Amino acid sequence: MHSLSQLYYLHGIGYEYTKYTGEHVIFDESTRKQALSCCGIDTQDSDVINQLNFALDAGTWLNLLPHTSIIEAHHPILKVRVDERLLTSSCTLSVPSLDIHFTCENLQGLAVLGDYGLNGIRYLELALPVPEMPIGYHDALITVADQQAHSQLWITPKESFSIDDKKRLGLSIQLYSLCNEEGLGIGDFADLTKLIKAAATNNMDYVLLNPLHLLFEHSPERASPYSPNSRALLNPLYIAVSLCEDAKNNNALDKLLANKPQTDATYIDYTSVSDFKYQVFSCLYQQFCEFASEERKQQFARFCETHKHSLSTMLVGDRDYASYLQWQAHLQLNICQQAARDSGMAIGLINDLAVGCAGDGSEFKSQNELFAENAHVGAPPDPWAEHGQNWGLPALNPQKLSKDNFAFYRSLIRANMEDVGGLRIDHVMAIRRLWWCFENNSQQDGCYVYYPFEQLLAVLKIESHLNQCVVIGEDLGVVPNEVREALKAGAIYSNGLFYFEKDYQGEFLAAEHFAPHSLLMIANHDVPPFKGWWIGHDITIKQQYGLLDDEQTRAQFDARNIEKHRMLNFIARESHQHLSLETDAFTVYEALASSLAAAPAKLFTIQIDDLDQQILPVNIPGTDKEYPNWRRLLSRPAAQIIEAQQSFLANLISIRNQ
Fold it and tell me: Is there a contact between 501 and 514 (Cβ–Cβ < 8 Å)?
């Protein structure tokens, strides 16, 4: 049993956690065994267990360096593990790409960071000072006596990339929801460019997007951006015909566009939209193949070479065609980011990285060996789900993630930081621990599993600098203190959500509560738009769809009235405006947003849905087919929405600048 307990620890299988009620929960032995089984380990085979324990613990002391070595750029120390009998030996470090060849004549004077006894031999971990190196990843070779080891040196900044300390205002949007000027039924990058220019004119500094991940061409109704086909690839449906070079002098395309289908003004019909747009894409690709200049073909070839890792994960018949669509999507996303910077935005676009991928998509299938078996990501029991939540997203195996020096994770982060000025990490706690859901004795079970936090955090900080991209970690819910502290120390923005920030009596916390290095929002995509929330339309919808009975509906309206009173109390405390339950919803929203604009949070984000005074939600958590999630469109072009709210936005900017 001791050997199995050791393997639980070394493999990241959690032992305990604190429930939302404050209860201290220790995971059952059978639960932990099942979690380990999901990692492909036979928990009944003592030989396998002992071999793994040795490899993950004692065996690491037999190598001079691990496969990856993290070095802080501001304090360049390399941790080297040696047999103490070699202390009088010299040590040579070579980093060919940087033309570094460094020799330490004697190891004896180096600081000892730790030690380990094995078979009567004492091994020491030494702090070897090394030359300064640029932030990034550098392959190295170390030699001590007759021992050699290869390692990839990760030169890590103290903090992630950041901009100056000014308070800034931004806009959050669902890109697909923008009214499409081309009449193709879904918001695209051309519509985003127009929104960016209108937002920048009103002194906003960023636009926070929904995840732009690749969805399912042949199952277009699977519209959730948080359960994607692949997180390393872009959704071609966002490609704008007007921004594509291959749309020029394209007779086949012109004929097709002359007969485009009529689209719904409220919800996206993904089947119709996808079918037509992929016909459009076929015309664009044919034009490229037949008439593109050599220069453009070389540009495409360079794109394919640069993105070969992510493109290789596509499970498609015609890889060149699929790669062409990725190229066009990247070109247009870059156009949008450049438009943001040219318009004076300090950050520009902020991308959103989902916590996982679909279990039948190309990301999962192409990287299958990195995932656990029959384990999915979810959440422990909470007030909204007493039995916990299973999000249906396959769980990555923490031990397998290190393959090829964490190539998968590094490529994923790089792909999502490309062509944008910021990246929001959905459920950032995933870099430390995730709740796994699995079957145990034919029943739903689950526990926390821990991930290589130091390495994953290092990747975020390195890539943020290489891509000049700020990082926001969505840290809602129960997040371990060490994660919050590490994110804060690494200058990664936290993500505050007004609706959920309350004291022990249920009152909303003062605006000053929101930390300076945070992104503050009133609500997100899982919460109804403000007007819908204020009039209780979200409750009415749930009743209409049979999600609530009459008694539950009355209870929720009663609870909502209490929440509204608490909100009015907050507004009165912060701004001395005394409103009532009869006050118009947008008047209340203006007062609330103005109160929060004074918060210390450096980034304050308002939703375009609220400026549009929407009442229909983007998404109702816990529903799939019942409500048309991820489909609702805005009522008018984004530029018109922003223009109509110019005085309100100017007031927010004025408050932010005080």
Answer: yes
